[in-house]
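To whoever is on call:

I kicked off a structure prediction for a single chain this morning and the downstream step that reads the tokens threw a length-mismatch warning. I double-checked the sequence; it's 178 residues and nothing unusual in it as far as I can see. Pasting both halves so you can look.
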Amino acid sequence: MIKLQQLIGMPVIVIHSGKLVGIVKDAWFDEHWQLKGLILEFARLFAARVKVVLWEHVLTCGEDAVIISDETAVQSAKPNEVQRAFHSGVVKLRDLPVITTGGMQLGTLSDVYFYPFKGTQIIGYELTDGFVSDLREGRKWLKAPSDPDEVLLGEDAIIVPAVSDTELEPVAASNFTG
């Protein structure tokens, strides 16, 4: 299991040439928490394109680099095509409130977890209640429901099942468990 923020800042290397094609700046998702790709370059002010690698071209995410299939995997996309990204995009996932269908806020999104080799589904969320609370109580871990349709990745909030409040664990207790 890997935390998305561990990928930010990693070099992206082509497997057969060893060529550095960029640095991971962000990642974007669809409405079902499927990882669509990595963003290698943000759109500058008034820029018409961003540099991206579709997730299907990522061979592995190691400790020190992301390895891709070939240089043609690096593509150009319009900034509005990157609808839901972690730090950028039309909908920014980081810091979105996570709210149950019963109306209880569990925290705000701090990070997401996924298996880099077992598909692209998000498997868990790291939640925060703010800096002071993180120091006193630590961050919380929420395992993603097995049915991706049970989570709504909305414009202003992430909606999870009502029972999710009973499934919160301390981040340390969940570290690298499956």
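Update from on-call: the warning came from a stale cache, not from the record. Cleared it. Sanity check on the structure: The chain has two domains: 2-91, 97-174.
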